[in-house]
Amino acid sequence: MGDAIDKRISVSDLPHFLFSQSKFFTKVQSYDVKDKSYLNIAEGILGDNWEIKRREAWYVAKPHSVELPRHGFKIHISLISSLTPEALKNILPVLAEFGVAFKFLVDAHIQDFFNSQACNKVSSGKFLTAYPASQAEFEAVIEALLTVTEAYYGPYILSDRAYKESRCVFYRYGTFAGNKECDVTGASKPVVINELTGETDLRLPYFQLPECITDPFPCPDDDSESELLNHRYEVVDALASHSSKGGVYLARDKKSGLTVVIKEARPYINRSLLNEHDAISGLIHEAHILRRLEHTGVTPKVVEVFKEWQHQFLVLEHIPFETLNYRDWENHNILINDQGEQALQLCQRYFLLLANIIKAVELVHQTGVIIGDIAPQNILIHPETLEVKLIDLEGAYDQLNEQFYARITSRGFSEYDKNKRRKPTVDEDWQAVSALCVHLLHPVCPLFALNPAIKNTYLSTLVKSHGLPECMSEVAMLLQAAQVDKVKQVIATTLRQLTASAAQTGLFERKRLNLDEGECTQLLKKMADGLAHFIDNPVGESTFPVDYRALSTHPYSVSYGQFGIFYYLRKYTNIVAEPLVQKAIDELMALNMANMPPGLYSGLSGIAWVMYECGYQSDATCLMKLVLKNDLRHDACDLFYGAAGWGLACLQFYSKTQQPEFLQGAKEAAEIITNQLNEHQGTLYYKNLDGQPYSGLLHGNAGIALFFLRLYQVTHNQEDLRLATRCLQFEIDRGERINNELVWRKNYNEKTTYPYLQFGSVGVGCVLLRFYSVTREAKYLALAQEIAQATQGKFCIYPGAFVGMSGIGTFFLDLYRVTKDAQYLREANSIAYRVSLYQCAVGEGVAFPGDKLAGLTTDYATGTVGVGFFLSRLLNDGQGRELFLDPDLSGLETCEQAAKVQLDSME
């Protein structure tokens, strides 16, 4: 999982979760082995006293009698897949003779993935891992393996050191088994590999030994090695995240004094059964393409190509432009808040930039080269002149010389194909430029990989919603059909009209597009059909496709896992899911509860809440009591992972059961939080697990304030209300007015502002409204209305609840419920229409894309169920409780009334 508080991973890590099924996040465990030849070889060599089991991407082979230490030196074997069957027949007898436990990848298909640039740097190249039981055994086994593998080779393993300059035998010191203990987030704790220092096994993309561990095969330092690449280039900075293929660096050319860009390629990366060429071949091919295109002026010039050690380097001129992928255009505020000169300039800029991109692509095509991977990250623009340069051309096809490396694509811009030898076409280049027509307004193109048919509708919606020139849609469709001359005519005509004052009439007149009641009802039905489809056609271990975070922790949570889905099925559909619910409960109860996170959205307390609501009151109550004994309950304070969340669940259970231990549990949660709050100018704030003070509902002060508010409603203790208001006031004070809009940053150390439920403004707004409902202080309502003003009319990248439009729509429904002002209900309807654009067909129903728009999900946080909660409330005019935010405290009122009646009767 990622290191951020929300555990989001980078785009580069997504392929690990999309490997088995390209449209859904799944564990590699669900991968269906294509070829059992590796297993057959192992079974033929190992005797009856060996056990072989499948574990995720691996077959694990272990003699029955072997007991392994927790950590030590382990041996890695790296092989290209074409050599592997022969190599295994030489390697496995050595391991069998020594009785060394080992694991190996299940087949060549997954091996090719581990040898590709899509695999992360730490795992890259690792085909087989052997676990010697002692230092002496390690030294004997690695020497024996060296003897039988001299003819074999594979990618260099970055985390390891090569043994005696072997091309396939490597070693490092590390853990032999993963840690089954989890932390409060549900992630596995790092394994301690040095009991004296507490040092853990950090999986790094370079060789490093723990303190006090010496290398049994020390390498002499090479003092003669130059710090300059090719005795000429001084690396200044890394320009991109370093992949297993190699890095991209900014460097100073000591010979010319100029700044240059250096691209690196490592041998055997990307070599596979379907592609005999490796990353070095790709770099050499890119150099060829760039030399072919040098006269066009739309690509960087080649300085030189050189080899150093095993790596190939391509040196290019440095072009100090911006990458289109990272500009983000800041269009929303201009289009929503400015209907004059700024909006007109934005439209002019849009067409001028598009015209320059088209011109650059045409110049390349005229040389007989097809680009192949036209995408924002491969386009540089000058921020003022809008001059365009095309980069990263290793996937280009030189038609004249019939030279081609491999098919390289970007999701939503070009069609992925496992056949890497399939050459790109001119039409495909223009289809990618057509996708850029959407990206220049809103970066959602990965959606089109899941639902290609929605592209034109999405662009048309952007155009109508912002009153943009209608020809934007026409241009995209013409590019889709490769009618480039017609496109250039339309752009030229439009630019002339945009410079004439008369043409401004009718522009930027926005059209509100709503999802009416019938459409909303129909969409909810299709969403239910989509969920039913997965019951009959399960995806992975969770039945329903869920966010990758559930795959990295446990599959049961309410946010990313099964129980949020179960709650929705029970409350809002007619789907019979009791067998699935009971199966999940049985699996859950069989786990070690002390090792499960207690959190509301992440763990046991939220699961218990949902179980109670779904009719499993006895099991739910028992589970909630286990939360009060969970040692992890002290480790976090926010609403998502920590005490504010499980404390809120305690209040719900106290209301439902009137059992005093739950009220005591809520008070304990309050004490845990209070002890970790920091004072600031009369306010209170919490630094989360990573030391950052976040804004918003789920990880910030707003969620903690909500817990204290609900506690006050139960205890009527003014101190609880004071804590609540002081926590919320810190959040209020951190709001900023930028361009007359009230906004919040994710945390207070970064530039980006967030409007979402999980982080940022609408999460704060939801809490402000609940404070207003309890205290009737007008300032809270006024601030919530100011947040609405800053948020309305905007498109977000994601449709989901936590970091998407459904969460924002939920806030507008809350605001409508409090004020009865119809404008907020209208905005919720408009948001519902925007959300509906993201639906993707599954069977007879639909599902929605989750994080990065990379895979379809059905969970509460990112997928179908979060959308469903919002749309179901919309259909009911905003009425209804929001899960967790509005605990049912009516049981306490009934209890108080009964006590009062009893008191009156005694009088």
TrEMBL record:
<dbReference type="GO" id="GO:0004674">
    <property type="term" value="F:protein serine/threonine kinase activity"/>
</dbReference>
<dbReference type="InterPro" id="IPR012341">
    <property type="entry name" value="6hp_glycosidase-like_sf"/>
</dbReference>
<dbReference type="Pfam" id="PF00069">
    <property type="entry name" value="Pkinase"/>
</dbReference>
<keyword id="KW-0067">ATP-binding</keyword>
<dbReference type="Pfam" id="PF05147">
    <property type="entry name" value="LANC_like"/>
</dbReference>
<keyword id="KW-0547">Nucleotide-binding</keyword>
<dbReference type="GO" id="GO:0005524">
    <property type="term" value="F:ATP binding"/>
</dbReference>
<dbReference type="InterPro" id="IPR057929">
    <property type="entry name" value="RamC_N"/>
</dbReference>
<dbReference type="GO" id="GO:0007165">
    <property type="term" value="P:signal transduction"/>
</dbReference>
<dbReference type="InterPro" id="IPR007822">
    <property type="entry name" value="LANC-like"/>
</dbReference>
<keyword id="KW-0808">Transferase</keyword>
<dbReference type="InterPro" id="IPR058053">
    <property type="entry name" value="RamC_C"/>
</dbReference>
<dbReference type="GO" id="GO:0031179">
    <property type="term" value="P:peptide modification"/>
</dbReference>
<dbReference type="InterPro" id="IPR000719">
    <property type="entry name" value="Prot_kinase_dom"/>
</dbReference>
<dbReference type="Pfam" id="PF25816">
    <property type="entry name" value="RamC_N"/>
</dbReference>
<dbReference type="InterPro" id="IPR053524">
    <property type="entry name" value="Aerial_hyphae_peptide-synth"/>
</dbReference>
<dbReference type="InterPro" id="IPR011009">
    <property type="entry name" value="Kinase-like_dom_sf"/>
</dbReference>
<keyword id="KW-0418">Kinase</keyword>
<keyword id="KW-0723">Serine/threonine-protein kinase</keyword>
<dbReference type="GO" id="GO:0005975">
    <property type="term" value="P:carbohydrate metabolic process"/>
</dbReference>
<feature type="domain" description="Protein kinase">
    <location>
        <begin position="234"/>
        <end position="557"/>
    </location>
</feature>
<protein>
    <recommendedName>
        <fullName>Protein kinase domain-containing protein</fullName>
    </recommendedName>
</protein>
